[in-house]
Amino acid sequence: MSDLPRKAVTRTAKLAALPLGFAGRATWGLGKRIGGKSAEIVARELQQRTAEQLFRVLGELKGGAMKLGQALSVFESALPEEVAGPYRAALTKLQEAAPPMPTRTVHSVLEERLGAEWRELFLEFEDKPSAAASIGQVHRAVWHDGRQVAVKVQYPGAGDALLSDLTQLSRFARLLGPLVPGMDIKPLITELRDRVAEELDYGLEADAQRQHAVEFADDPDVVVPDVVHQSDQVLVTEWIEGIPLADIIADGTPEQRDRAGQLLARFLFSGPARTGLLHADPHPGNFRLLPAADGEEGDWRLGVLDFGTVDRLPGGLPDTIGTCLRMTLEGEAETVYDLLCAEGFVKETIELDPDAVLEYLLPIIEPAEADAFTFTRGWIRAQAARIADVRSPAHQLGKQLNLPPSYLLIHRVTLSTIGVLCQLNATVRLRDELESWLPGFLPEEDGEEDAAVVEVQA
């Protein structure tokens, strides 16, 4: 297997082949239409063929292309089954693995970053990687003190590859739109590009992981492996055994699915409240289902990996999210609209009907209303279709809403997590987690109104 392709001409040629392939299939589709096939059938065949090529190329290239593939993979559940089915296996593979870099390259990085005697730091080191992703790969090893560890080694030239890929991909982002109905791909690519420098910095990642490891050290439900050693391009952390979430999605029992979904939601909302950080890369490859600490059968825990991308939220998630969500459930259209305007979700130059905005939001937040909600592919497909249908009021209204920069990463993480919950087909008591961890979701005590609402109404 060759090194991560770093020459611009090599990577550009592979990526440039994607829009050419899309155009060729469009011509093929026109021929099928002329031959008598319905527009709907032809569109789905085009979508399937496009997705197959896209994820194959993204998986080969790693770098920014692989990062986009992982980000898109969690939205697979929003696609029609006849389209999603044939390449679901390819998406799952993107979440868990990518072609590894040669052993000689791994050793070269370790020698450069850990010193010529790097092998003395380990009692054992497995040359074959246990996992590979967008900017690095993980090797299992035994640290010199006997601890089982995961050694994350960054691909040489990963930074240049990330920037080059995402710049190239942004040029034909609109062609990727049909893969995930109702989602604008270009802002996603832009946001991924903005995070490149942060994700390449293993020092920042180590700090974020340490903070989570300390906070969750005695948690009965969530396990975060501690950092053992960190240097440029190399990060050594404790090893955790467990069932990859991708395996639970493929073959898990109903009990495992529900437990994984509940703990994933708990971690998403409790993390910012407890650490001031939001884990911002919630694809299944970053989670494991572990047995209970006391060995009790069925009482699973959630193992969390990869803190390379986080959103720093010193005060936790914004109170406005919880307040707006509660007011929407209570049918307070005017208050919700005022809050959205104040936060910049509705630009000053636009005026919308508050009742129409409420009607747009209610189906999306249905999981927060029920005591327990079963996240299914059918539900998320219905939401995607409602927003993507150009004839629907929801589509027209959605185009007029704005996403403030400060909410961009929170929005992506929430959508991605919902995508994973739907892949799990998990029944989750989401309202319990919101009441426990989301500021503003519960009314103020003693019947007082939220300060945010009072300020907006004033």
Topology overview:
Blueprint: H1 8-34, H2 39-61, H3 63-73, H4 81-96, H5 103-114, E1 122-125, E2 131-132, E3 136-143, E4 148-154, H6 158-171, H7 173-176, H8 185-194, H9 196-200, H10 202-215, E5 222-223, E6 227-231, E7 234-238, E8 243-244, H11 245-251, H12 254-275, E9 277-279, E10 287-290, E11 301-304, E12 310-312, H13 319-329, H14 333-343, H15 354-361, H16 366-369, E13 373-374, H17 377-388, H18 393-400, H19 405-424, E14 427-428, H20 430-437, H21 451-457
Parallel strand pairs: 5-11
Antiparallel strand pairs: 1-3, 2-3, 3-4, 4-7, 6-7, 8-10, 9-12, 10-11, 13-14
Helix pairs in contact: 1-2, 1-6, 2-3, 2-4, 3-4, 3-6, 3-8, 6-8, 12-19, 12-20, 13-14, 14-15, 14-21, 15-18
Question: Could you describe the 3D structure shown?
Answer:
- 55% of the residues lie in helices and 12% in strands.
- The protein has 21 helices and 14 strands.
- It has a domain at 319-457.
- By secondary structure, the protein is of the alpha+beta class.
- Strands 1, 2, 3, 4, 6 and 7 form a six-stranded antiparallel beta sheet that branches. Strands 5-11-10-8 form a four-stranded mixed beta sheet.
- Mean pLDDT is 81; it is low at 1-6, 19-43 and 446-458.
Write a concise keyword list for the protein shown above.
alpha+beta; six-stranded antiparallel β-sheet; four-stranded mixed β-sheet
In short:
With 458 residues, this protein is α+β, with helices and mostly antiparallel strands.
